Amino acid sequence: MDCTAHLYPRLPIELLDRTVDYLHDDPDTLWSCTSVSHVFLRSARCQLFHTLSIANDPSCAHGGYAPFLCFLERTPEICAYIHQVKFVRYPASDEQPLPVPELCLHILSEILSYLPRLHTLILSKDIHIVCHCQPRALPLPLHHQNDSESDFGSSQLKLKALSVDGVRVATSEHWNTFLSLFSAIHNFSVSDLCILHGPREGRSGSASITETGADVEALTKIGTKLVLKSMAFGFDHDKQVEMFGVLLSGSAAYLENLTLRFPAHPYSSVRPEDWRHLQLSSLEQLKALTFIETPPLPAKGEALDVFSGEANRTVCDAIKALLSLAPPSLERLHFRFRLRAFGTGSAGQLMDNFGWDELEEAARRCERVQRVVFELQGRPEGDAYLQCAIEGRVAVLCARGLLQIDFEK
C-alpha cells in the first residue's frame, strides 16, 4: 500500500476538468496550472491545445508551415490534445509586404499523421496549396523512423469538418491529392476555391496561369458525404455541369451561398438546356446566388473580344436559364459584369441580352428576395444613363426597393 496516498487525495477527474474549464480564456493561468501540479496538467492541456491557429513563418522556405511540424515532432505528448487546427496567413503590413503562404502537401500529410484526434481543419484565405518536395526529402517523423519508407497519403483522417476559404491550389492533381488525405468528411465547407492550372502556353508562347473553379470530379469521387454551405465554381465545358449538379444535390439541405462564374467566350459548349442538371430548385436552404462574368484565357493563336455580342449573349443565356430554376428560399441575387460605357461595347449588349423579364419573374416567385445587386464596370460618363436604363427594365424591383446598382471605376 502506498503510504503517501493519504497525503495527496485525488479529486474526481470530472471535477478537475470542470474547475479548469473556468480558465478557458486565461492562457497565462492555464500555463501556470501545467507547472504547479501534475494533477492539473491534463485538464490544462485540454484547454490550451484543443484549438490552434497556426500562422505561416515568413522566414521559412516558401513562407510555409514547417515549423508547426517541428513543434509536433518535439512534443508528441501534446498531439493527442489537438482537436481543431486553423492555418492562417501571417499578418502583413503596407511597409513590409510578405510572400503568399504556401502549404506543402507533404508537410500537411506529416502534420496530420501526428494528430489522431483532429476533427476540424480550417484553411483560411490566401493560402496556396503546393507540392515542392518528394516524401523522402522530408525528415521522417519520430514514429516513422523505424519504417523503411514514408508513404505519402498514408495518414488518412476522418474529419467532422473541413473548411476551405479563399484557398488557391497549384494544379488539379494537387487538389485531388489534398482530398485523398482524408478518408471521410462529414461537413465540407468550400468558398472561393480556385485551382491554378499552369504553366500553360499563351498566345505569345510564354507561360501563363488562369484561375478556374474547383475540380468537381475530385469532389464527387471522394466517396464521402459532403455538406457544402458555400460554394464557388467556374464552368469551362458541359461535362462539368452534370458533375456539379451531383455535388450540389448531396448538399441540397445545407447549401446557403452559391457563386457561379461564366467565361465570356462566344463559343461556349454549355447549352442553355444543360443548366437543368444543376437542379437549383432543389436547394431548399439557398439564400444567396451570385453570377459572375469572367474573362476567358485565349487559346494559342486566338484573339477573343470579351466585349463581343456573342460572348455576352452566352453568359446572359446561361443566367436566364438558371433564373428560371431559382429556389423560393432565395434572399439575394448578385450579378457582376465587365462593361464599357453605355452605347459602346458590352453595356448596350447587356441591355439587349440580359433576361430582364426572367429576373422580375424570379423575384416575384422568390418572395423572400430582399436585394438584387448589379455590380458593373463602367465609365463615369455612362453610369447615370445605364442606371436609368436598368431601372426602367425592372420597374417592379425598383418599386419594391430591391434594386441596387454599383459601378467599379
From TrEMBL:
Superkingdom, natural source: Eukaryota
Protein name from the UniProt record: F-box domain-containing protein
